[in-house]
């Protein structure tokens, strides 16, 4: 990144560009040799970091709106049963996350697209929990335990919470190493 140049012999001679001298070394470092590609790489790194930060801010805002809708569906109508929907959507990704590490490619399968029984079980359990999260407010509203408006707010809020969790896991998924 820096190019080492020889130190001038007399104090009156100067080197081109800005230099940094150190009393411990007899040479100087020139900052003129910093390549533009390094600078462009740095700018790209900063822009990627800012894009990731914007993504986190957006996802946290959507998550907060989802929880707000679920809590308002409970508080406005003085019935706290719709809060169970938030619980179901928060625990919904857990079976996928747990069972995803049980499957994968081994010596006998031709690709990773072939799912194992454990991965399929995780997907099945996740789908049961998600369907429960959407159906529970509808069943409670049909039985007139909660109001229809509370059920709608609870379903929309729970969908936002689950969608945020899925989006976060997809955006920030890390590639697994083979070794």
Describe the structure in your own words.
- This protein has 179 residues and is mainly alpha-helical.
- The protein is built from five helices and three strands; from the N terminus they run E-E-E-H-H-H-H-H.
- It has a three-stranded antiparallel β-sheet with strand order 1-3-2, with no helix packed on it.
- A hairpin with a 6-residue loop joins strand 2 and strand 3.
- Helix 2 packs parallel to helix 5 (148-171).
- The longest helix is centred in the first third of the chain and has 40 residues, at 36-75.
- It is flat, with a radius of gyration of 29 Å.
Main features:
single chain; 179 residues; mainly alpha; 5 helices; 3 strands
Short description:
The protein has five helices and three strands; from the N terminus they run E-E-E-H-H-H-H-H. With 179 residues, the protein is mainly alpha-helical.
Helix percentage range: 55-70%
Radius of gyration: 29 Å
Largest sheet: 3 strands, antiparallel
Strand order of the largest sheet: 1-3-2
Strand segment count: 3
CA(first)-CA(last) distance: 32 Å
Beta percentage is 5-15%
Write the layout of secondary structure elements.
Elements: E1 3-5, E2 19-21, E3 28-30, H1 36-75, H2 83-91, H3 94-99, H4 117-142, H5 148-171
Helix pairs in contact: 1-5, 2-4, 2-5, 4-5
